[in-house]
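call fold(seq) -> tokens
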Amino acid sequence: MPCNHLNYNIREFSKRILLAAAKIRSSVEFLAELSDVVIASIGCDAMEIWLKEKKGCSCWEATKCPSRFYRMGNADEKQLQEALQKGVVKIDLNNTFGLKGFYNDCVSVVSIPLCSGDETVGLLLLKSRGVGFFDERIVDFFDHVSQVIAISIAYHRVQLQQRERVKELQCLFEIAKTASIPGLNGNRILEEIVGHIPPAWQYPEITAAQIMFENEVFSIGDLSKIKHSQQADIVMEGVRRGQIIVSYMEDRPELDEGPFLWEERGLIDTIAREIASILERKKADHDRVELHKQLIHADRLATIGQLAAGVAHEINEPLGSILGFAQLASKHPDLPGQVKKDLKKIEAASLHAREVVKKLMLFARESLTEKKQVDLNELIEEGLYFIESRCVKAGIQMSKILDSNLPHLRVDPAHIHQVLINLIVNAIQAMESNGLLTIETFREDDHVCFAVRDNGCGMDDDVLEKIFIPFFTTKDVGEGTGLGLPVVHGIVSSHGGTIGVETKIGCGSRFIVRLPIHGLCGPGVKGNA
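ret:
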């Protein structure tokens, strides 16, 4: 049945449409109100709005009560172009524009191009199940107001785009501000960043976000109700290290990428790149600080080494005289018993002092080395043979993980044996009964390595920084000289190797000795708590 009247004049209709466009809200909400105004004004059964997009086009369908359905989806761009070329067209008797899903029994259709100035933004289709429903008055009316509809659509798009850009820029600004806060580690930064993501998406109230980086997960929102998601990889130095996932917890109409905008795809990719850049800078800063500490430590050790060498040489000669005269005097036949006991104490003290001097010379790399080709596994098996009984006595279990394919090394066997024994003794002293001592050998690039690991008390950062300084010890008075690890460092460095430490309070420590397979590499110490 033809429509005999319009509920709005052109002025009132235009005012309603422009007011709808001025409201700050999503495209779905705007098109829903626009459809309500159009359908209510003429009483048609359904309508479509086809809109040109940056990529392809979209189709909006709306139906009249009692049943109502709104859907934003992709439409065929070629079909839209063909319809636009025809201009204003009134069609009857089922010659429709591919109507599907709703009111397929519509037999009256009018198509009206939506033009804003010289730009055509889309096409308006009005549909009715009544034959000849659309008279010339309706066609003329929408021919006049089509430009208002087009302007309102264009205006709302610009407004929406500006709002989304502001949200995106705010998100990136908050990320940059978080990254600039001093003292935050990588995990704390990611925890802060994930909270800035949902407000930047079109529907923040139903948005959940998740950042997965290596073995850590940071999230916000209810991830048990995910309906739609988009992801971006976090790539550092060409390697995928993590992922960002942004999800909607409710269904939303189809837009550019599912219910997401093209701009949101660009934003999530940008955030992934920003996170990679921030973490790379944090790693570089951490490495620079660690390198600075190592340089200071190496300089300190070099100075102490020079001092130790000088002291050792100065003490060695008078110490030899004291020991020699004590031994000579003890051979006198008429010495009283107490004097003999005192001479034995002088001799024992002199021997202990000579051992300390020997360790100082090892630390200062003043002793001669006799390097030969050795099998590291055989050397370790020999060393463990003498230490196994001590482990059994202390109630400590020993585990060996030895790589049978290691190349031979050119080292001083006695010195490497001393390194192994010192590390094992330290590990045993750090554990209580029922501890676990693990000795490993493995290859790492152009180095052969062995590691001694305990599950003892571990070390804090303050202790870790001082363990290679001569005479520093955490043991009670009389239980250690504080030269064991400095001697280990001196021996390893004299072989062109490095010694690294991995430790955590309450979880134990792992000392890793790396020895070069070919030639010598620069000495150094690496430690991370």
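The first strand starts at residue 46 and ends at 52.
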